[in-house]
Specification:
- By secondary structure, this protein is mainly alpha-helical.
- The protein has a domain of about 90 residues.
- It is about 45% helix and about 5% strand.
- A 3-stranded antiparallel sheet has the order 1-3-2.
């Protein structure tokens, strides 16, 4: 018995594409998902409809409607030549009239640590910021050349005041 809902990896294996492509198809609306216990699952019917729509000419393809059951095409009665022709028609239709994906805003660059700009700074972050500033100032002082002062002049001949007894005489 075939499962009704496929994991992302299983859907990727069924379509012979990577996980990233499956997520792209989901994001662009070509593959609907069902959330089951916090996991995303892809209905098998949606995968089969995607393949069937890719094989039809672009004029006949329809958007996915969840209320309609999907019946996969029966290709067992076709000869090799008919299958080859059908594959060629599908490729021509896909290459000539592939709809452009909707414009998606580019993702911002990943946050490489620290808080995003514009967010308030917490008390601990303020203390850490002040300490970092103090550390930078200490490093800057250490790198600066010392101030030059002229050498002190020490007078070796110091005249001591006369003793009090000497003044009276």
């Amino acid at each position: 018995m075939k499962p009704l809902l496929l994991r992302i990896d299983d859907a990727a294996a069924l379509l012979s594409v990577g996980r990233t492509k499956i997520y792209q198809l989901i994001r662009e609306g070509f593959l609907p998902t069902v959330s089951l216990a916090g996991d995303k699952r892809v209905p098998r019917v949606a995968v089969e409809r995607l393949v069937a729509n890719a094989m039809r000419p672009a004029k006949e393809s329809e958007p996915f409607i969840a209320s309609e059951p999907m019946v996969p095409p029966d290709l067992s009665g076709l000869s090799d030549e008919e299958l080859w022709e059908l594959e060629q028609k599908g490729r021509e239709a896909a290459s000539s009239s592939t709809p452009k994906p909707p414009m998606v805003a580019p993702k911002p660059p990943p946050n490489r640590g620290g808080r995003p700009k514009g967010y308030p700074v917490s008390g601990a972050a303020k203390v850490a910021k002040e300490r970092a500033q103090e550390r930078r100032e200490r490093e800057q002082k250490r790198r600066e050349p010392p101030c030059w002062h002229p050498p002190r002049q020490h007078n070796t001949a110091v005249a001591w005041p006369a003793a009090l007894d000497d003044e009276e005489e």
